[in-house]
Design a protein that fits this description.
This protein is an alpha+beta fold and 595 residues long. The protein has 15 helices and 30 strands. The strands form 7 sheets. Strands 7-8-6-9-10-11 form a 6-stranded mixed beta sheet, with helices on both faces. A 6-stranded antiparallel β-barrel has the order 13-14-17-16-15-18. The protein binds guanosine-5'-diphosphate.
Length: 595
């Protein structure tokens, strides 16, 4: 009964299905930094201009305890556009499906991929988290299936989103003993946004006491109605441990892809997407790419964003040299002049000359668009706060691969508030170089390395120039470190606590530096140490230090409401206290704030 009344009294706010963090903060009338902070506490890294979905917004608003209720205003038009796949011509042939594997951390994505491929992907992950997309093909019933192993950490939302857009099918892995979690919902959202088919693998069914019905129920609560209940979501119970259900899962992937009639042109120039890039010792820039149409060969010229290559080695993702790569194949390409970027589209061109011209055009394009993009959330906050003394933390970031670098930078941007902000003065792929250290010295930046090393000459240089270099293998630890640095820059908050009030009944002594008076406590409790505001009517006469309290002739630690007492005040200028003046005692503390 009490609950109902409470609910009925809650004010409600109508919001869209997808709403930007900035707009939501505005509607809730709270500072955007508070909303971003609450989102981060819940593992969602989102900047001012990023959209969050209704379910996330609802959870966050509840957690904020504002006594507000959100109501969904449905409108699909706010979704960001999906990258379209190349259209196939009449000559198109059936191609293998591309399946992105997503789900909550520890639900068994990597183990399941291991079980499917027979490879051991689990090994070699820092902090147990897959930190960039790895892709490979497996054969089932003499047909190929391409899997993209997308990262499991919430900080890698950026990569995961790309992951969904590259794919035909999203396989969402849910641990039977844990059920739907925030990242599962996020994966469902990405898959929906990308307009791809969803297959749900309910993993760990070998564990005793697992309840499939509970997961099915949770799925239907998230608008994924399963087939046996009349919906169109396919679910398959599996165990990565015992391999039970895996052949059926692969059959289902092939069946779904047959229904989707996945086709591509195999003839003609190769086109596709860069899904990972890094510098390898002795090989230079090396990229993983997914072919979407046409065929790639060694020695082809390809342009990817503002970089180009004459393909030197064309290999499968497990390192076998190949003579051609056809649609849906993930491949490793070496021979790039510079490092292409994760998410760059690539295509074959006729000659090196064409490659160079296109690269130059693309660089010019990029510059134009990055000038526009500069007025992004970060810059905007910076511009608005120019006069508000926004504190900036200068940092340089180096990472092992482009995908991780993008994710680290995206995650750091989410830490910005309207008071403190991260300024990336330099970033790149590869180990920390002399130049990075010079730049750090001159811009007073901290150098962060993610999965990269610092040569010993660099260590000496850093020591000499007093440059702080911090290397991390787990993204959360890196982000926490930056967060701590930002927290140190926050101005402490001044908090006042009211103690009690005295009405002056008599003034015993007045000098330039001291007043001794007596009176009655009309409110609260007087204790020491304390500051006091002296008021006559509504007007404040002075703020003073309270130096002593006496009950009768004896010193007292505290005087309660209704008691009479004597009080000495330390003044800095002469103050003529009168009978009837009020003395309000309070404490003032400066409290370190948290980001
Ligand atoms: P990811 O973070 O989603 O890639 O999850 P992992 O593949 O790293 O698995 C997380 C944990 O769950 C590991 O300790 C695995 O051994 C365990 N695990 C994964 N699949 C199964 C399964 O089918 N059955 C059982 N009993 N444990 C599993």
């Amino acid at each position: 009964m009490a609950d109902n009344t409470e609910q009925a009294q809650q004010a409600s706010i109508e919001v869209e299905d997808m709403i930007t963090v900035g707009t939501l903060a505005e509607r809730l009338s709270i500072p955007v930094s508070r909303l971003i902070g609450e989102l981060m506490k819940n593992g969602v890294m989102a900047t001012v201009n990023e959209r969050i979905d209704f379910d996330t917004a609802q959870i966050i608003v509840e957690e904020l305890g504002l006594g507000l209720k959100l109501i969904k205003h449905t409108s699909d038009s706010t979704d960001t556009p999906v990258r379209t796949k190349p259209t196939a011509s009449a000559k198109a042939k059936v191609r293998p499906p591309v399946v992105a594997v997503m789900g909550h951390v520890d639900h068994g994505k990597t183990s399941l991929l291991d079980a499917i491929s027979g490879a051991s992907v689990v090994k070699g992950e820092a902090g147990g988290i897959t930190q960039h997309i790895s892709a490979y093909q497996v054969e089932h019933n003499k047909r190929m299936i391409t899997f993209l192993d997308t990262p499991g950490h919430e900080a890698f939302a950026a990569i995961r989103e790309h992951g969904a857009q590259l794919t035909d099918i999203v396989m969402i892995v849910i641990a039977a003993d844990d059920g739907i979690k925030p990242q599962t919902i996020e994966a469902i959202r990405f898959a929906r946004k990308a307009g791809v088919k969803i297959i749900v693998a309910i993993n760990k069914i070998d564990k005793p006491g697992t309840d499939l019905n509970h997961v099915k129920q949770q799925l239907s609560e998230n608008d994924l109605m399963i087939e046996e209940w009349g919906g169109d979501t396919v679910i398959l119970p599996v165990s990565a441990k015992t391999k039970e259900g895996i052949p059926a899962l692969l059959d289902m992937i092939l069946l779904v892809s047959d229904v989707e009639e996945l086709k591509a042109d195999f003839d003609g120039p190769g086109r596709g997407l860069i899904i990972e890039a890094h510098v390898e010792q002795g090989r230079g820039p090396v990229a993983q790419a997914l072919v979407e149409s046409g065929t790639l060969h060694p020695s082809d010229f390809i342009v990817a964003g503002s970089s180009y290559a004459k393909i030197r080695n064309l290999e499968t993702t497990d390192g076998k040299p190949i003579k051609s790569a056809t649609p849906s194949m993930p491949v490793v390409i070496s021979g790039f002049k510079t490092l292409p970027e994760f998410g760059d589209e690539f295509q074959t061109v006729k000659s090196e000359k064409d490659a160079r011209i296109q690269t130059e055009l693309s660089t010019a394009d990029n510059q134009a668009s990055s000038n526009r993009m500069n007025i992004g959330s970060n810059e905007l906050i910076r511009l608005i706060n120019r006069d508000n003394k926004l504190q900036e933390l200068n940092i340089i970031i180096k990472a092992d691969v482009q995908g991780s670098l993008t994710s680290v930078i995206d995650s750091l941007r989410a830490l910005d508030t309207d008071e403190v902000s991260v300024r990336v003065v330099g970033s790149g792929v590869g180990r920390i170089s002399e130049n990075d250290l010079h730049l750090a010295h001159s811009s007073r930046a901290i150098v962060y390395g993610f999965n990269v090393g610092l040569p010993s000459s660099g260590r000496q240089q850093a020591g000499r120039d007093k440059v702080s270099v911090r290397i991390y293998k787990v993204i959360y630890e890196l982000i926490d470190d930056v967060k701590q640095e930002l927290t140190k820059m926050l101005k402490p908050e001044i908090v006042e606590t009211e103690l009690g009030r005295l009405i002056v009944k008599a003034v015993f002594k007045t000098t330039k530096t001291e007043i001794i008076c007596g009176g009655e406590v009309t409110k609260g409790k007087l204790t020491l140490p304390a500051l006091a505001r002296v008021l006559r009517g509504d007007k404040q006469l002075a703020e003073v230090n309270v130096t002593g309290l006496k009950r009768g002739p004896a010193d007292a630690k505290e005087i309660l409401e209704g008691e009479m007492c004597g009080m000495s005040l330390a003044t800095t200028k002469r103050l003529e206290l009168q009978e009837g003046d009020k003395v309000e005692l309070f404490n003032r503390e400066s409290v370190l704030r948290q980001l």
